[in-house]
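thought: fold this chain, then report.
action: predict
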Amino acid sequence: MKKEKMALDVVNPQAAGIDVGSRSHYVAIGPRDEDVREFGVYNEDLLALAQWLLDNDVKTVAMESTGTYWQSLFTTLQSVGLEVILCNGKFTKNIKGKKTDVKDCQWIQKLHTLGLLSGSFLPDEATEQLRTYCRHRANLLEQAADTSRKMQKYLRLLNLRLDVVVKDVTGLTGLTIIDAICKGEMNPEKLASFRHGNCKKSEQEIAKALQSNGRKDLLFSLTHEYELYQVFQGKISECDKQIQKLLDEQIKNDENKKQHYIEGKVHKRLNKNSPDININLLSYQYFEGVDLLAIEGVGHSTVLTLMSEVGHGINKFESAKQFASWLRLAPNNRISGGRILSNKIPKGSNRLKIALRQAANAVGNLKDTALSNFFKRIAFRKGRTSAISATARKLAVIIWNMITKKVPYKTDSQYEFLDQKRKRKVQEMKKLIHKFDITPDDLGLQLNINNL
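observation:
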């Protein structure tokens, strides 16, 4: 029997593949060993790499997203006019066999030549700058929270049970008392006099909780943690100013954004970790008249995360399903032989997915809204964890439709009148009656079940 060879069509004839490393990059422009070269990671090496690709008439390049080592190379290649495809490492894994840097770059080049690689989502430069500020701010918040926990620990060791009498030791009352303690004040009555008017505990009860054992070593450590906390709060404020400045520049340079205006929302409360900027107005202008805060459960931090992680790049997703799938909020159906083997949500997470899940959890605590009723129906059948995932996906779909189609948020309950609600409830009861074979004797009522 004569052997037949099967050939694949070449999609990208002038393609190169790069195996990104921490100290060197291996570049392949063809299948032969002489088509592979190694370059360093310094700026002059990256420029030499880009020039070598241009000299060999390369038009498009594929590379793995290895840590943060790819970013400088990615920027350099784009600056010289090359089309760069950034791929997830799980899509470029080589077949079983000996693994070397040379073979890896050749395999990437081969896959890209045949058009078997797809690029990862990358935001535009303005969104990337905003993302840097917001992620740095999140890291500062984590460090500030760590110093807050240490302050509480040293307060307990000093027998100053401030955490019992105030809700938050970093609130107005708590920080004022800690500041006085760090300055040497140990009189319980004097410390209790710093109580803020909103504090529920009386001065007498606060004074009882502030009987210190006077250990100087613990007081020294508490003072250092309090100073670090103040430093972090100052850095967070500076970060807020940079975020405000960057957003103002983007809005002022665009006439379509600058013309929009919206009043503040009293029911959307700010917590102490929220940025000191008007997210309500800035997001409304940024998305050109789309009011995302109108969605129940969606707060200022959720909107800021959306602006910094995706921004206007959300228009790159052709459908809401693609957007939900990219967020890993859509089920990954695995079908074989006509049967669904698995439909679990894929593993993996990003900051926007976490923000949407937090918003979904907040929706579950609301009463009698369209989204909260949806949440409770899912939670009743499958539990709260599944309800959070399902509601987060629903939020992602709503957000995609609002931004890409420029439509306001409208709930189904706003247009559902009493007769429509009654009709829906009757249909639900019919299903239950037929499912569980309910009779009039079971209900204790004289009902004509046949007419239902």
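thought: worth noting. The beta strands are 15-19, 25-28, 36-39, 60-64, 83-87, 334-336, 339-342.
final: tokens above.
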